[in-house]
Design goal:
24% strand, selenide, water dikinase activity, alpha+beta, 10 helices
Length: 328
């Protein structure tokens, strides 16, 4: 093989569809929650985006890790997407990434190392854009390629964005359109490239996080593998609130509804919907396809913020009670 080549045959549509289904994952970590510590601000208990530990009066350290199999065929783009996705967990906490290390699984007898170089180059490019140096990593021989990062960040402990700090009476804001899972799945099966989807996935959530903190938001999460409905459910459950979601207000990538109508729905998306369905109250005119779109498994999605964030669309509101009402 000459040149780095492409990841055709390895790209997994469905936006992080390789994640363990949410219900199974929660059961697996159930016995690990409740770890005490006076300086642990955010731990395992509510499934937040990153851990937060106070190390000073005005300083918390954030820690997170994320990696996955390819979602696109281009190795450089995969590296960029995976890096943006890993960095997003720090932004979702209202923090700033300060250092990262690479996490790599590579089938060295199947894919050339030149291709791995392209993946790492893509990751480094996005990390550099974030002002976050990549200073090392760990690599294992793996039958299937995997790439991501462990990221360390910092934040003001008094201004953390947490998923257990939402309150009734505030708007819900979403900072990126949904639908990348459907487009990635179409890409996997047809080879068609969707530049808008790639652009959305490599876009950093840095500006959105800064705007959310500046607007006084206290709760947020990023929308990734469990879909908009799944991550909204986790935020509501952790905060003890309910949500009213205006499906018509949710921004959607061009082509995603066509992919939905043509059946490019991942197994991960279907599992997301089945997991959250008991929490839903579905209004008139909201069909199964609309729910599948709202459950679409995302990769490097936007921030879902409890509060209005200037410049980004409001998609609903938080109210007292429990569950999610979906209406048009």
């Amino acid at each position: 093989m000459t040149g780095p080549g492409r990841l055709t045959g390895y790209a997994h549509g469905g936006g992080c569809a390789c994640k363990i289904p949410p219900g199974e994952l929660e059961e697996a970590v159930r016995g690990l929650t409740g770890q005490a510590g006076g300086d642990i601000l955010v731990g395992l208990d509510d499934g937040d985006d990153a851990a937060a530990v106070r190390v000073g009066e005005d300083l918390a350290v954030l820690a997170t890790a994320d990696f996955f199999t390819p979602v696109v065929d281009d190795p450089y783009d995969w590296g960029r997407i995976a890096a943006a996705n890993a960095l997003s967990d720090v932004y979702a906490m209202g923090g700033r990434p300060v250092v990262a290390v690479n996490l790599v699984g590579w089938p060295r007898e199947v894919l050339p190392l030149e291709m791995l170089t392209e993946v790492l180059r893509g990751g480094q490019a996005v990390a550099a854009q974030a002002g976050c140096p990549v200073i090392g990593g760990h690599t294992v021989d793996d039958p299937e390629p995997k790439y991501g990062m462990a990221v360390t960040g910092v934040a003001d402990p008094a201004r953390l964005l947490r998923n257990d700090a939402a309150r009734p009476g505030v708007a819900l804001t979403l900072t990126k359109p949904i639908g990348v899972g459907l487009l990635n799945n179409r890409h996997k099966q047809t080879g068609q490239v969707f530049d808008e989807a790639v652009a959305a996935m490599v876009e950093l959530n840095a500006g959105a996080a800064e705007a959310a903190v500046a607007a006084g938001a206290t709760a947020a999460t990023d929308v990734t593998g469990f879909g908009l409905l799944g991550h909204l459910h986790k935020l509501c459950r952790a905060s003890g609130v309910a949500a009213v979601l205006d499906a018509a207000a949710v921004p959607v990538l061009d082509g995603a509804r066509d992919a939905l109508g043509d059946g490019y729905i991942s197994g991960g998306t279907r599992r997301n919907l089945e997991w959250v369905r008991p929490q839903l109250r579905v209004g008139a005119g909201v069909g199964e396809e609309e729910l599948l779109l709202l459950a679409d498994a995302q990769t490097s999605g936007g921030l879902l913020v409890a509060g209005e964030v200037p410049g980004y669309p409001v998609i609903g509101e938080l109210v007292a009670g429990n569950g999610i009402e979906v209406r048009l």
